[in-house]
Write a structure and sequence with these properties.
This is DExH-box ATP-dependent RNA helicase DExH16 mitochondrial. The protein has 79 residues and is mainly α. It has a domain of 50 residues. The protein contains 3 helices and no strands. Helix 1 runs antiparallel to helix 2. The longest helix has 22 residues. The relative contact order is 0.11. The mean pLDDT is 78.
Length: 79
């Protein structure tokens, strides 16, 4: 469990490094390395969680959007 916690902390640090590298490129020049290391840590965390029985949540589909013309008609009824 300690490995999981340290991997999670490392992932957060690498995520912060990548974020900062977009804003302060000269101070944080290793964006690609940090990004690849972050991906590796994320994969290790997912592998660990899957061994414990965790499953990735399925993506939920959003309901279809109502066309703006339909919303406009409904709004006009109240005016």
């Amino acid at each position: 469990m300690d490995d999981e916690i340290s991997s999670q902390g490392l992932t957060q640090v690498l995520d912060l490094y990548v974020w900062l590298s977009f804003r302060l490129e000269e101070s944080f020049p290793d964006r690609e390395l940090a990004s690849s290391q972050k991906s590796m840590c994320s994969m290790l965390i997912e592998d660990f969680l899957e061994r414990l029985g965790w499953q990735k949540p399925r993506s939920k589909r959003l309901a279809p959007r109502t066309p703006l013309t339909s919303l406009f008609r409904k709004t006009r009824q109240f005016l």
